[in-house]
Amino acid sequence: MPKRLTVHQDGKPAYEIVLDTDFDGLGQLTGQLGAAGRRMCIVTDSTVAGLYLEQVKKVFDSLCREVVVFVFPAGEPSKNLDTVQELYRVLIENRFDRKDWLAALGGGVVGDLCGYAAATYLRGVSFLQIPTTLLAQVDSSIGGKTGVDFASYKNMVGAFHMPKLVYTNVSTLKTLSDEQYSSGMGEVVKHGLIRDRAYYDWLLEHKEEIDGRNPEICLEMIAGSDEIKRRVVEEDPKEQGIRALLNFGHTLGHALEKQLSFSMLHGHCVGLGCLAAMAVSVERGDLPEETWISLRTLMEALGMPTSVGGIDLEAVVRDTKNDKKMDGDAIRFILLRRVGAAYIDRTVTEEEMRAGLASILE
């Protein structure tokens, strides 16, 4: 039986997160939401298209009046306004109207780009998320944040636009490379660190089975991570307060991504950012050093990098000032009082950031 979580907005059900082991239930659920007889544009990238496009297209061929496919080159460099414009062109040329649908089939880049296009085409059309990477399944597909990069600055152009459904086929984890799989762990581990000590301890206990992609354990892991994010986004759907806690590890992580010209995967940069931020908490006396060591050990067991070389430390600190999480001249930095208890801090100094980064330098 599939697992289901309902995400609420303003106290009312907004959409469901459905976790299953195949795509068999996708058509019925989408039809119940109003997609039957409408046009559907499947947005995907060149990697995912070769893996799952035909399966998903077959589902929608039997449901929708017309199915259009938009495939763009895989990777972060495609996550920009130029690609969005090409998608707009396809939608216009195929006469998509406000009752037609988009489907994001792929990882975080696909979901963010498709969601932003759905939010802005004709001032907003319906879309669904079909995440195929662990990173997207536990993070970017949930919560309605959409966006694209501008120049080398991540997610600087975006909008909040809730999907009508998040349909996760956990069997897609089988086709992920080791690097892509471990990248998703950056967000999984982060969720436990900021909000749920019991979940974090469960990850420590099951790290070997998680690394081995045990199907039952992976489904439980994704459901647990989704539940944490669901609770946070319900409390703060537009990131006016507590939702900012989800940015633990991201301020330095995004700056690292930029300095590395996006050669390191997002989840790996987030993991490194979590280590660096936790080092700040250790230095402030909020956490024992053993907690930092425990996180590094867990990351190593899950195949994640725990150090990085070839970066300009001063440039990384400088790039944090260009982060969209700035609050005036202050950086909204996320720190930990203890595992499972994160908080927003606006007093982290450049010296503290340098010290945190020093803990992850090769």
Strand proportion, as a percent range, falls in 15-25%
N-to-C span: 46 Å
Poorly predicted segments: none
Summarize the main sheet. 4 strands, parallel
The strand count comes to 13
Shape: globular
Structural class: alpha/beta
Radius of gyration: 20 Å
Description of the molecule:
With 362 residues, the protein is an alpha/beta fold. The protein is built from 14 helices and 13 strands. The strands form 5 sheets. It has a 4-stranded parallel beta sheet. It has a 3-stranded mixed beta sheet with strand order 1-2-9, with helices on both faces. The longest helix has 21 residues.
Question: Layout of helices and strands, plus pairs?
Answer:
Layout: E1 3-9, E2 12-20, H1 26-35, E3 39-45, H2 46-61, E4 66-72, H3 81-93, E5 101-106, H4 108-120, E6 126-131, H5 134-140, E7 145-150, E8 153-160, E9 165-169, H6 178-195, H7 197-205, H8 207-211, H9 215-235, H10 250-259, H11 266-283, H12 289-301, H13 313-319, E10 326-327, E11 330-331, E12 333-338, E13 341-345, H14 350-358
Parallel strand pairs: 2-9, 3-4, 3-5, 5-6
Antiparallel strand pairs: 1-2, 7-8, 10-11, 12-13
Summarize the entry for a quick read.
By secondary structure, the chain is an alpha/beta fold. 47% of the residues lie in helices and 21% in strands.
